[in-house]
Task: structure prediction
Amino acid sequence: MFLKEFGLPARIICEGFSISRAKLYRLLAPSKIDPLSSTMAVIAYEHPEYGYRRIHVLLKREGIKVNHKKVYRICSQ
Result:
């Protein structure tokens, strides 16, 4: 990991860059690729007229259990 390579404590690195330790660890963490958002992107590309409600119905028909609020949140991005 970055911190072990340089042998510096996280606190010192964070003070140097003026960021919190939580932000440092968030930056170093591997990114989470959400398969749901890629599935929704395909549906939205194929049917640009569909809103989040129709996309939610299509996901349910495909057997993907997801809350309508999460679908709305991803569509809003």
About this structure: The chain has two domains: 1-30, 35-76. Residues 1-30 form one domain.
